[in-house]
Amino acid sequence: MTNPFRAVGRGVLGVFETVGEIFMFATQALGRGLRGPFYVRQIGRQMIDIGYYSLPVVGLTAIFTGMVLALQSYTGFSRFEAESAIATIVVLSMTRELGPVLAGLMVAGRVGASMAAELGTMRVTEQIDALSTLSTDPMRYLVFPRLVAGVLMLPVLVLIADVIGVMGGYIVGVLKLGFGPVEYINKTFEFLEAEDVISGLVKAAVFGFLVALMGCYQGYNSGRGAQGVGTATTRAVVSASILILTANYIVTEIFFTR
């Protein structure tokens, strides 16, 4: 019979080992990548893949979130005769929390899985080994461009998601709940501060780095065969999602704790 304390201890040590490996992976990728040469075309290709091709799924998520948020807020606030706060609630919720977190999770599902599958396939077919043989550092050529693209494009996606989410709340507020168009827009900007938007963009940059890091790490260290690639893809999405939620609390604590 397995000793439960030994099993728990082995699990804890395994977690610390994995965290250390991820930290070393990120350090190597950034250290080698920042020394150049810079593969600009690779960075551009990853920016298009992360930013442009993720726009439909992020936009749809944002507009329906904004619409639902307006409806749910109205249902609750009407009990306290505080319907006028709905526009403020929608814009603060989108810029501070829902925009960055939902965009991060959507990109983790689409891009993180894609990165892990692509790098995992390259590992299985020994293309990564071939790059090393040709004196091309895989960390500089494959990993660093994805990290840069993730950090740069997530804030852009989140900014667009914020606007679309507020627009969703505006549509419901004006067309269904009876707010005047000018009144709703004035309420939207009345209590919005620069810090609300900036904190969301900082979160997005952190989430972009985490999504790209976990996609690259899991794919780069993928096991052999189709099963290994599938496992790496699943781990990339799950680990990125957990790290996004963890980092969300940490960044929120930094920005809004006085």
Describe the structure.
The radius of gyration is 21 Å and the shape is elongated. The protein is 85% helix and 0% strand. With 258 residues, the protein is mainly α.
Brief sketch in words of this structure:
The protein has 258 residues and is mostly helical. Helices cover 85% and strands 0% of the residues.
Helices and strands in order:
Elements lengths: L3 H31 L5 H13 L2 H23 L8 H39 L2 H7 L4 H38 L5 H10 L3 H27 L4 H32 L2
Helix pairs in contact: 1-6, 2-6, 3-4, 3-6, 4-6, 4-7, 4-8, 4-9, 6-7, 6-8, 8-9
State the end-to-end distance: 51 Å
Spans where pLDDT lies below 50 across 5 or more residues: none
> Beta-sheet strand percentage?
under 5%
**Sheet of most strands:** none
Number of DSSP-assigned strands: 0
Our count of helices gives 9
Query: What class would the helix/strand composition place it in?
Result: mainly alpha
Task: Estimate the helix proportion, in percent.
Answer: over 70%
- Helix-strand topology string: HHHHHHHHH
What would the keywords be for this entry?
elongated; 258 residues; single chain; 9 helices; mainly alpha
